[in-house]
Write a structure and sequence with these properties.
19 helices; 7-stranded mixed β-sheet; single chain; 43% helix
């Protein structure tokens, strides 16, 4: 699931390609208002057909979402044509539709893609409409920030569903090690001490594992430790890279230090995120960092990747606090964006409002193994059990990256250098040292600054 949701966001190119022909959404309606203009309460046009692009979010993406919007059509008379677009082509298709003005009415977009798409100029500013769904107060800060574009006024998307990263652990392993789960991962020091105790007292299982350079989301796994230590991916004005600051280096070295201390299973660095997830599910790892989708798989009898003992002993804890007393995690997921060229802005907004309703978000997020984007349904899901509560708490402290169009390329630069650092800590590709880490981070910062300068020029 998480591969399909965010893989394109980490691989996007900042150079526009020629526009391709894409499906055109909706019927002609010369009387409709501009897409960004606030709704006036006029009667929606029954019989209108909206086109909605969705990605492979669930077992049957088109059918599942088509069924989800049936009550909307029954209530409004507005039809919805759900079209599935693969994650391997969605970036190009959305970009081309935005540039050409020929596309659907609404599209799903990965949260880190929104700034790039918004900068193209082909999407509606929803600022005058979002009050209908509670505006920014209805969402956690990190989630709402995914709707923005740095340096430009406007709200360019509506959060749809959310994922965050939390710590998965084996309850039975902590019990054997004599560790209290309530304090096991409270801060960075206790996190490391927990892994050391597992290594000493519970032979036969690796304390911790995480993917390396093969993981598209490697940056999402490393940045929480950078943030915990007071570092950031970019300066506060998003003009320069700060990934080579001392605080950022401390955060990267903390994670690499788990490898040099023998607490991190080095073999996991050669696996991608799904493969490491399956190592935890298969009983090979005591601790792993992942998203909420794993919780949904515990009760699925058809998921044969689970070891029976591991399946019965899944615990979740929020990410640890850093020296400053704050705990951060990456929050992502997907948003909804309205094309400026839609001929039916009021009808399109009505559909976006429906997809933003608490129950609709709860039902769809549950199907995906994700979290709703809105605070109230998030709280309801969080109250369902202790493991979901841990994710709810993590989301409230969640962060995402600076909302700039060129983030995708910058993330790729960071991913490469983070992968090199973890490899060197594992004894691959050169000696590991603070100086070597600084060299890699300096290179990442230089590449990022070059990308930022190109955009500014």
């Amino acid at each position: 699931m998480r591969n399909r949701l965010v893989v394109a966001a980490s691989a996007i190119a900042f150079v526009l390609a020629p526009a391709a022909l894409v499906a055109c959404g909706g019927d002609d309606n010369s009387g409709s208002k501009p897409a960004g203009q606030a709704a006036t309460g006029d009667q929606l046009q029954k019989g209108v057909t909206l086109t909605l692009w969705t990605m492979p979010n669930s077992p049957k993406p088109k059918e599942d979402l088509q069924k989800m919007v049936e009550p909307f059509t029954a209530k409004t008379g507005v039809k919805v044509d759900v079209q599935e677009v693969g994650w391997d082509v969605q970036f190009d298709r959305i970009r081309n539709a935005a540039v050409s003005g020929e596309g659907p009415d609404i599209t799903q977009a990965g949260t880190t893609q929104v700034p790039f798409f918004a900068a193209l100029g082909g999407f509606a500013d929803l600022s005058e409409r979002v009050g209908d769904i509670g505006g920014k107060d209805a969402y956690a800060t990190g989630i709402w920030s995914t709707t923005l574009l740095e340096g430009q006024d406007g709200t360019w998307a509506v959060p749809w569903f959310t994922e965050a990263r939390s710590i998965y652990y084996r309850k039975d392993v902590l019990e054997k090690a004599g560790i209290d789960p309530a304090t096991a991962f409270k801060d960075l020091d206790s996190f490391k001490a927990t892994l050391e105790t597992i290594k000493q007292k519970v032979p036969g299982i690796k304390p911790f594992g995480a993917p390396g350079k093969k993981a598209f989301d490697l940056v999402h796994n490393v940045m929480p430790f950078v943030w915990d230590n007071g570092g950031a991916e970019l300066s506060s004005d998003a003009k320069t890279s700060t990934i080579n600051s001392q605080q950022a280096q401390t955060g990267v070295e903390w994670m690499a230090g788990l490898i040099t201390a023998g607490l991190f299973d080095k073999s996991q660095l050669e696996r991608d995120g799904t493969q490491v997830e399956n190592q935890f599910k298969g009983g090979k790892l005591a601790v792993w960092i992942g998203g909420p989708w794993v919780l949904g798989s515990i009760d699925r009898a058809d998921d044969d990747t689970w070891d029976s003992t591991a399946r019965k002993n899944v615990g979740v804890a929020p990410m640890p606090t850093g020296p400053g007393g704050k705990a951060y995690t990456f929050v992502g997921g997907s948003d909804l964006m309205m094309f400026k060229a839609t001929k039916h802005p009021d009808e399109a907004w009505a559909l976006m409002k429906f997809l933003s309703e608490d129950q609709t978000q709860k039902d769809y997020a549950a199907l995906l193994g994700m979290f709703p984007a809105r605070l109230e349904p998030q709280q309801q899901v969080g109250d369902s059990d202790a493991n979901h509560k841990a994710f709810f708490e993590a989301i409230q402290n969640g962060r995402t990256y600076a909302p700039i169009p060129q983030w995708g390329q910058i993330e790729n630069a960071y991913k490469t250098r983070f992968g090199n650092i973890l490899d060197s800590a594992a004894g691959v590709g050169g000696g590991y040292s603070p100086a070597a880490v600084k060299t890699q981070l300096d290179a990442a910062a230089k590449e990022a600054d070059g990308l930022l300068a190109q955009a500014a020029g």
